[in-house]
Write a structure and sequence with these properties.
Elements (H helix, E strand, L loop, with lengths): L5 H18 L3 H18 L5 H5 L13 H4 L7 H22 L1 H8 L2 H17 L10 H18 L2 E4 L2 E4 L3 H12 L5 H15 L10 H10 L2 H4 L8 H4 L22 H4 L3 H8 L6 H19 L7 E2 L19 H15 L5 H14 L3 E11 L2 E12 L8 E8 L11 H13 L7 E7 L4 H10 L17 E8 L7 E7 L10 H14 L3 E4 L9 H17 L16 E12 L1 H16 L12 E5 L2 E4 H25 L6 H5 L18 H12 L2 H9 L5 H26 L4 H23 L3 H11 L12 H13 L2 H11 L4 H15 L3 H21 L18
Parallel strand pairs: 6-7, 6-8, 8-11, 9-10
Antiparallel strand pairs: 1-2, 3-13, 4-5, 5-7, 9-11, 12-13
Protein name: Rhomboid protein 2
GO molecular function: serine-type endopeptidase activity
InterPro entries: Gaa1 (IPR007246), Peptidase_S54_rhomboid_dom (IPR022764), Rhomboid-like_sf (IPR035952)
């Protein structure tokens, strides 16, 4: 027999096995491996510090840096760190993906398998250890997968017998964790422990609660034909496509033979389902589905005022006990009020400093500590300056850890003198000083106006102010539990109380605060209560709908509606009380409402949290919560995403009939030939549209007030011409194809749907309003052969453009366009209102891209289908 070199045989065999193993790696595992390598290569350069940008640093994790929760597993300290993690992770990840499928792995490892360990680490590091140790690397996934494998091994082989001792097999990752911590001092013991804990949790059978529903993943897999399109893709359907389910990327299926598995696509999958999935007519369904989403969303909204979809309000916080105490504010206090009112009337027309000098002397005479605060804001070329005056009544039974605020602006939002509000606050300060029942400090705040003054004071109270514009507060109390603002400019007796509760950016106070005021005023005092300027409400469907729509409009605009609005972003529940109507109620009745509300807030043992923060009120005692109304905005936002996905799929098929004729006659089950996607031009157009969105945002927030109307007019003209200029440039120099116009629209709608879906959870009304105004973009397409249709659609888009809607809204409410833009700039500069960002950086770029697509004239020649044997992207 010939001699054989065992070393040569072993070396060749090992190379073959290694090459075979790498070639058999499933798709997601390959993607993770490539991502780790790419991030390591990018991290080699010294121009940009990748590790500082993407590591999980507890103190740097915020709303704008949540990407760190997903980037840190791909970033490593050095080559050795990356190599060790890759060698440990790839076998475990390959086994997991082969058993659970590529889509499930993608959803888990970019979802709960990275975010849950991250949040656990942040909690332990910041709250428990009070440290700020940065972590990075894929080892957290290694220990997570080891935890899953350890529990699986424990179910089959519970113990490892060492001599006379039985060691549970599930403890093996813990031993490895301790060894790594001892041998590698720079490793994160806490990070590895968090990953291992999640792995144990999933291994015990709870992973099904973290994974997406299998029906949805099956639908996505079948809809996009992922099994046939993507090489090395692992199917979710293990019974139909086998345990590993990896299809070859090219070539014909293996022939049937006895004892050998047959073609995976022809055994269990019905031919009718395949034909339906590949049928080009399926691409005609998404427009109708998008239209259905819009119609259902609108109908859903109009169903909310019905009794079947709304419910009555109730008090969730039992400690409030609204209306359970007797109020004593009356009698001799009315004489005190009249004296203070006489003093206030004499101050009418005086400067802010003179007013504060007089009020401070009055408050000091009551024995309260007083302080002042100056502020100066600049917006739209105007200066908003003033001086706040406040006093603190220290609680006889408290320790200065909590406080309640009573706010009165010298001038309300309409510019009227708060003739009865300021005297009532002074009278209540004198009245509250006589009582010893207060467990919380009471702060009496008098501001020169209703927006800038409260905003400056609240910012400084929470040390979030700009010291160059706002002075710090020399006197403070504890955590603010609530605030009540008085807007009492009416001279005559009143009939009812109007509750204003809209905050900045659509934020709302806890519903328990509004319910408490309604219970005290309406139930105990017998005073009528109104909301959203519905002075007469008969609790029928039309009035409910009108009230709800008014509230949604104010919430969508996001501007401050009173002194209370500045408190809500700091989680301080606040409302403004406005008396209205001609009745027999006097100032003492209003004072008793304030006293009863303060007595209820005084009972709180913790911050209001049990009731709703997201709601729509349609009557003072009827509301809908976020779980009921949110689907309306989500459906409208989903129509953009559905159409974007459909256009992406459609762009992968040949559109030119001449190209299709060159193909052989298809069978009944054959699909439309695929083509390559040219992404460079569509991505460039979308990037350009998104980039220039900062121009109107900057112009309308920095131009002087006198220049705002001409600036708006000039921008409107440019806005009308810009789609034509951009379309002419593309047609002349690039000649985009139908596919490229489809991709431009797909990317634009995808971004719009993503932004609106996220916005809906924060400001439902703004997301729904923008979604409905932008809904025509879903159905716009190029009209190369019909000039009339092209310009009719362009006129329709111009009618619903951001500039046209702003101008029409200003005219409808009788406002000047300069006043509207000035208020928007003031909200942006002073209150942090983000409505201009949504309008100019989300809605306007989508409108511009849609207009370019509508005016487009695609070239007749399309891309040729993919050559035989060439992989589809």
């Amino acid at each position: 027999m010939p001699s054989i070199s065992f070393g040569a045989f072993l070396g060749n065999n090992s190379n073959l096995r290694a090459r075979s193993y790498v070639n058999r790696l499933p798709l997601f595992t390959r993607g993770v491996l490539v991502a780790i390598v790419v991030f390591w290569i990018v991290g080699v350069q010294s121009v940009w510090d990748l590790r500082t940008w993407g590591a999980l640093v507890p103190d740097l994790v915020g709303i704008s840096s949540l990407y760190r929760l997903n980037t840190y597993p791909f970033i490593h300290l050095n080559f050795f760190h990356a190599l060790m993690n890759v060698l440990a992770l790839v076998p475990l990840l390959e086994r997991f993906e082969s058993e659970h499928g590529t889509l499930t792995s993608l959803a888990l490892f970019f979802g709960p398998f990275v975010t849950i360990p991250s949040f656990m680490y942040l909690f332990i590091e910041k709250v428990v250890l009070r440290a700020n140790t940065a972590v990075m690397g894929a080892s957290i996934w290694v220990f997570l997968l080891l935890g899953i494998e350890a529990i699986r091994t424990y179910k089959l082989n519970p113990y490892l017998v060492v001599g006379t001792h039985n060691i549970p097999t599930w403890t093996s990752p813990i031993a490895l964790l301790l060894c790594v911590a001892a041998l590698v001092p720079s490793s994160s013991f806490v990070g590895h422990l968090c990953g291992l804990a999640v792995g144990y949790f999933c291994g015990l059978g709870y992973m099904k609660y973290l994974a997406p529903p299998e029906k949805i993943l099956r639908w996505i897999e079948g809809k996009l034909n992922l099994l046939g399109r993507l090489p090395h893709y692992v199917s979710i359907d293990q019974q139909t496509y086998g345990r590993f389910g990896v299809l070859p990327s090219s070539g014909s299926p293996p022939p049937r033979s006895s004892g050998v598995a047959m073609n995976l696509l022809t055994i269990d999958c019905p031919a009718g389902a395949l034909r339906l999935r590949r049928d080009p007519r399926m691409l005609k369904v998404p427009p109708y589905l998008s239209l259905l989403c819009i119609l259902v969303g609108v109908v859903w909204l109009f169903l909310l005022p019905l009794n079947e979809y709304s419910r009555r309000t109730y008090i969730s916080e039992n400690a409030l006990l609204p209306g359970q105490v007797h109020t004593y504010f009356s009698g001799s206090d009315q004489h005190v009020f009249r004296a203070y009112k006489h003093e206030v009337n004499e101050l009418a027309g005086k400067t802010n400093t003179e007013v504060n000098d007089k009020l401070e002397s009055i408050v000091k005479g009551l024995g309260l500590k007083t302080a002042r605060q100056n502020f100066t804001y600049q917006s739209a070329g105007r200066v908003y300056s003033g001086e706040n005056l406040y006093a603190i009544l220290q609680a006889p039974r408290g320790d200065a850890t909590e406080a309640i605020v009573l706010v009165g602006a010298w001038e309300n939002v309409k510019g009227e003198l708060n003739r009865n509000g300021i005297p009532l606050i002074l009278t209540l300060a004198r009245y509250f000083k006589r009582w010893s029942l207060w467990s919380k400090d009471i702060i009496f705040l008098v501001t020169p106006d209703s927006i800038a003054g409260p905003q400056a004071w609240v910012d400084a109270y929470h040390d979030a102010h700009d010291s160059s514009r706002v002075n710090s507060l020399p006197l403070k109390s504890g955590l603010l539990q609530g605030a009540i603002a008085l807007d009492y400019a009416q001279e005559t007796r009143f009939e009812s109380v109007h509750i204003v509760y809209d905050g900045i950016n659509g934020q709302l106070p806890n519903l328990d605060l509004i319910n408490s005021v309604v219970s005290i005023a309406g139930g105990q005092m017998g005073i009528g209560v109104a909301i959203q300027e519905m002075w007469h409400h008969n609790d029928q469907y039309p009035d409910r709908l009108r009230t709800m729509l008014r509230g949604m409009l104010k919430q969508g605009l996001g501007r401050a509606s009173g002194p209370h609005s500045s408190f809500i972003p700091y989680h301080v529940d606040a409302v403004t009380l406005q008396p209205f109507g001609d009745g027999w109620q006097d100032e003492m009745a209003m004072g008793r409402v304030v006293e009863g509300t303060f007595r209820s807030l005084n009972n709180l043992l913790e911050h209001l949290h049990q009731s709703f923060f997201f709601y729509l009120l349609m009557q003072r005692e009827r509301f809908v919560s976020i779980g009921t109304y949110l689907p309306s905005a989500m459906l409208v936002a989903a129509n953009f995403t559905i159409m974007a996905i459909a256009l992406w799929v459609k762009s992968g098929y040949a559109q030119d009939p001449s190209a299709a004729k060159k193909q052989p006659a298809p069978s009944k089950s054959a699909s439309t030939p695929a083509i390559e996607r040219n992404l460079f031009l569509p991505l460039g157009v979308i990037t350009f549209c998104q980039s220039i969105a900062v121009i109107p945002l900057y112009l309308f927030n920095h131009a002087p007030s006198a220049a705002l109307p001409p600036t708006f007019l000039l921008f409107t003209l440019l806005n009308t011409a810009l789609p034509h200029l951009l379309s002419h440039y593309l047609t002349t120099y690039h000649s985009p194809s139908t596919q490229q116009y489809q991709l431009i629209k797909s990317f634009s709608l995808l971004l719009l749907g993503m932004f609106l879906s996220s916005l809906a959870t924060l400001n439902f009304s703004l997301a729904l309003l923008i979604g409905l105004l932008a809904s025509p973009l879903t159905f716009m397409r190029p009209w190369p052969e019909s000039v009339a249709a092209r310009y009719v659609c362009t006129l329709l888009l111009n009618a619903v453009s951001p500039t046209a809607v702003i101008f029409a809204g200003a005219k409808y409410w009788g406002l000047e366009i300069g006043e509207v833009l000035e208020q928007a700039a003031f909200g942006w500069d002073v209150c942090g209102m983000y409505t201009p960002v949504v309008v100019w950086c989300v809605w306007w770029p989508a409108w511009l891209a849609g207009s370019v697509v509508t005016l487009g004239r695609p070239k007749a020649k399309e891309n040729a289908p993919l050559a035989k044997g060439k992989k589809e992207l």
